[in-house]
Amino acid sequence: MTDTTDQSSFIMHRFRFRAMGSNVEIAVRCEPADIQRVEQLAKDWFEAAEMRFSRFRPHSELSRLNRLEGGRFLISDAMLEVLLLAEAFHLQTEGTFDPFILNALRHAGYDRTFDEVKRRTEPPASSAPVRPDTKRQLLVDPVMKSVRLPLNMEIDLGGIVKSWTVKRLESYFQDKLAITRGFINAGGDLTVWSKPRGEDEPWLIGIENAWKPEADIGTLAISNGSAATSSKLGRTWPAADGIMRHHLIDPSTMRPSQSDAVQCTVSGWDIIGCEIWAKTICILGVTEGLSLLARNSRNYEALVFTDKHEVVYYGSKLSLGKQWNGLTIDHYHYADA
Predict the structure, then answer these.
(1) Comparing C-alpha atoms, which of 47, 48, 28, 24 is closest to residue 38?
(2) Which CATH architecture does the domain made up of 201-337 adopt?
(3) β-strands 311-315, 331-334: how paired?
(4) How buried is 262 (Cβ within 10 angstroms: 0-12 exposed, 13-18 middle, 19+ buried)?
(5) Can you give the pLDDT at residue 215?
(6) pLDDT category, 2, cuts 50, 70, 90?
(7) Under which main EC class is this enzyme filed (predicted)?
(8) DSSP SS3 for 313
(9) Positive or negative CA dihedral for 111, 116, 119, 121?
(10) How far apart are CA 330 and CA 311, in angstroms?
């Protein structure tokens, strides 16, 4: 099928705003008359997602669910979709991705928005340590559109909602507004598209240097696809014991991960999968994380930065120099070997 739309009057429009504790950057090819509409739609969509899924908003759907203490809760279609995705990735990552980490995040000191955490003048007070719970169970009823949480357990969906929000907005732009080229980046969770395929140059995405965030260490060339970066070095804060904490909780210990992976960028076809696998590799570390990715998922590639200041690549040999560019890599794990 050939796209016969006359796009001679279209321009590439770029805009930015703040949402979900992150900087959101969007670029879309559209007619000048549609600019205001596209901007407002994007801002409204992110705000609606935050109103539904934020643990920091007391009246959000997620906060009301967490307060129900074991009772069955009727949920929206959006919440049902995200919870089912969370359960699917919990299985796919063999338990590493786990929404039942809210109490552990609070214990670590992430008990308010990160902007408020950064403004805190004293380390957070210690709370009772959280023990891993092998009986976690998210009882979702897709027919009744309801869910029940175990007693004294709460969930956090921050590890999946941002990429879900990006993916849904991208789908709307393409399917409803017929936007043929675009870029959406929400705090490192990004997706790009170009249609018809092959007619536009690929998007060039800068890969952040883990140890010098102000500089890129290379570029990622994508025409249609996604990438997500997760890091232990960005969202950090000091605890009362003087040790820095971060937001990536290892569910096997219910404490911030101490693996050798400090930052990971994952590229692939699905932005939600990219976000989940980037976090999973950071939590588990290079060897275990990449082994799990190779075992349970395909069509993803990863660039991992270690605590020894080494760079590890996992993916196809053919992608080096074509998709991943300008990189100095210390260790290679070829998915097509």
Answers:
(1) 28
(2) Roll (3.10)
(3) parallel
(4) buried
(5) 86
(6) very low
(7) transferase
(8) strand
(9) negative
(10) 5
Q: What share of the chain is helix, strand, coil (3-state, %, to 5)?
A: 30, 30, 40
Position with higher pLDDT, 64 vs 138: 64
pTM tops 0.90, yes or no: yes
Residue the block writes with tokens 């930015």: 16
In a 10 Å sphere around its CB, with 0-12 CB exposed, 13-18 middle and 19+ buried, how is residue 59 labelled?
exposed
Residues 6 or more apart whose CB falls under 8 angstroms from that of 232 comprise: 246, 248, 256, 257, 261, 262, 263, 282
Q: How confident is the model at residue 335 (pLDDT cuts 50, 70, 90)?
A: confident
Residues 6 or more apart in contact with residue 243 via CB below 8 angstroms: none
Structure token pair of residue 188: 């490192």
Please classify residue 111 by burial: count the beta carbons closer than 10 Å to its beta carbon, then call 0-12 exposed, 13-18 middle and 19+ buried: middle
Q: Is 320 exposed, middle or buried (CB count within 10 Å of its CB: 0-12, 13-18, 19+)?
A: middle
Phi, psi of 247, rounded to the nearest 5 degrees: -95, 0
Instruction: Say if residues 143 and 123 touch (Cβ distance below 8 Å).
Output: no
In the chain, what is the straight-line distance between the N-terminal and C-terminal CA atoms, in Å?
36
Task: List the Cα angle 227/171/208 in 5-degree steps.
Answer: 20
pLDDT in tens, 258-294: 999 999 999 999 999 999 999 999 999 999 999 999 9
Residue 178 amino acid letter: A
Residues 72, 148 contacting (CB under 8 angstroms): yes
- Per-residue pLDDT tens over the stretch 312-330: 999 999 999 999 999 999 9
Sketch the domain layout of the chain as residue ranges.
201-337
Give me the phi and psi of 11, to 5 degrees please: -130, 160
